[in-house]
Design goal:
By secondary structure, this protein is of the alpha+beta class. It is about 65% helix and about 10% strand.
Length: about 350
C-alpha cells in the first residue's frame, strides 16, 4: 500500500506541488489581509470541494461536452449549469455544518443570502476558469503526443520502405549475378534432346521438360504493376513432378488439387515450385497410403497454398531453411503484412506448409 502511494505521489508530483503552493499563498495573503485565519478543518474541507470541482470540470464536464461536435455548446451550458448549482449547494451545506448556528438548513436561504450566494458563485467560476485552462493544456499535450506518434509511424514506415527497397535491390542483383545466358542453356538442351530421343524417348522428354522448366525459371518476372498468372507455373509443377519420377526411377504419390479459377490469379512466381521442390527433396512420397498434397484455394477474400507430405527418414536439411526464408522474404516484399506463412511437423510424421494471402 505504501509503495502504491509513493508511486502515485511521484506521478502526481507537479499537481501536488502546484496545489500546495497555491493553497499556502492564498491562505497566507487572505489571512494577513483580513487580520485573521480560519480553522484548519474549514480550509481542508473547502479546498477538497474546490479541487474536486477543478478536476471534475476538466475530466468530466468538458470532456463529455466536447466528445462530439454536434450539440457541444448545448451540452456544455447544461452540464456547466448543473455543476455550478451543485457546487453552490455543497458549499452552502458545508458552511452550514461548519458554522455554530442553531437555525435549520433550507434551500431558499441559499439564494436569499446574497453575499454567500455570490461568493460561492464567484469561487466556483474561479476554479472552473482555472480548470478550463488546464483542460486546454492536456488536450494540447494529447494532440501533440498523437501528432508525434503519427510522425514517428510515418518515419518508421519510410525506413521500412527504404529497407525493403534495399533488400529488393540486393535480391535483384543476386538474381542477375546468378543468371546464366539463356541462349547457351537452351541451345545446349535442344542439342541434347535431339541426340537422346533417338535412343531413349523418356530421357528425351525429360530434357524437354527440363528445358521448359528452366525457361520459366529464367524468364519469370515480378513487378509491382502486374504479376504473372499462375497458369504457366502450374504447368511447370507437373513438369517438375515428371522429372522427379524419372530421377528417382519410381512412382511418386502426390495429390495436386488446383481449381480452374486459380489459374488466372496473379501471384509472385516460383513460390509454389519452391514448395513442391522441398516436398520432392525432403519428403517421402513413395507410399500410396500417405500421398503428398499440394492444394491451391481461391476465394473472394483469400488465396491459400497448402502442402503436406510424409517426412522422409533420410531427410537432410541442406538448403531447406534457406528456401523457406527466401519464400517469406519475397512474400513480405510483395505483400507487406497481408499474408501468413507457417510450417511445422505434426504427429512426428507429416510436414505441413500453409500460406494465406488476404485479398
Amino acid at each position: 500500500m505504501t509503495k502504491k502511494i509513493f508511486e502515485w505521489t511521484k506521478i502526481q508530483k507537479i499537481h501536488l506541488i502546484g496545489w500546495s503552493l497555491f493553497i499556502f499563498f492564498e491562505i497566507t495573503l487572505i489571512g494577513l489581509a483580513a487580520g485573521a485565519f480560519g480553522k484548519p478543518i474549514n480550509y481542508l474541507l473547502h479546498y477538497i470541494l474546490n479541487i474536486g470541482l477543478f478536476y471534475s470540470n476538466a475530466h468530466l464536464v468538458l470532456k463529455i461536452s466536447f466528445r462530439t461536435k454536434k450539440h457541444a455548446i448545448s451540452r456544455l451550458i447544461i452540464l456547466m449549469g448543473l455543476q455550478i448549482a451543485g457546487y453552490i449547494l455543497l458549499r452552502a451545506l458545508l458552511n452550514y455544518y461548519l458554522s455554530d448556528t442553531t437555525k435549520s438548513f433550507n434551500f431558499p436561504t441559499i439564494v436569499e443570502n446574497y453575499r454567500s450566494f455570490f461568493q460561492s458563485l464567484w469561487r466556483g467560476l474561479f476554479f472552473i476558469g482555472l480548470s478550463c485552462f488546464y483542460y486546454l493544456f492536456i488536450e494540447y499535450k494529447s494532440e501533440r503526443t498523437l501528432r508525434e506518434e503519427a510522425e514517428n509511424a510515418k518515419h518508421i514506415k519510410r525506413l521500412r520502405i527504404r529497407e525493403m527497397e534495399n533488400e529488393l535491390s540486393i535480391a535483384q542483383y543476386d538474381y542477375l549475378r546468378a543468371q546464366i545466358n539463356p541462349h547457351l542453356l537452351f541451345n545446349t538442351l535442344s542439342f541434347l534432346y535431339d541426340s537422346i530421343r533417338k535412343y531413349n524417348e523418356d530421357a528425351g522428354q525429360a530434357v524437354l521438360n527440363l528445358a521448359d522448366l528452366m525457361r520459366f525459371s529464367l524468364e519469370a518476372r515480378e513487378s509491382n504493376e502486374e504479376l504473372p498468372r499462375l497458369e504457366e507455373e502450374i504447368k511447370q509443377i507437373f513438369n517438375l513432378i515428371e522429372l522427379n519420377k524419372i530421377r528417382k526411377d519410381k512412382e511418386q504419390f502426390i495429390d495436386v488439387v488446383i481449381p480452374e479459377d486459380t489459374k488466372q490469379f496473379r501471384f509472385i512466381p516460383l513460390v509454389i515450385i519452391t514448395l513442391l521442390e522441398n516436398m520432392l527433396k525432403h519428403g517421402n512420397l513413395s507410399r500410396p497410403e500417405h500421398p503428398g498434397l499440394l492444394e491451391l484455394k481461391l476465394s473472394y477474400a483469400e488465396f491459400s497454398i497448402h502442402t503436406r507430405n510424409l517426412i522422409s527418414t533420410k531427410i537432410h536439411h541442406s538448403g531447406f531453411n534457406k528456401g523457406m526464408e527466401n519464400i517469406e522474404k519475397r512474400l513480405r516484399l510483395a505483400y507487406g503484412d497481408n499474408f501468413t506463412f507457417y510450417y511445422e511437423k505434426r504427429d512426428a510424421m507429416y510436414f505441413y506448409v500453409k500460406i494465406e494471402l488476404k485479398l
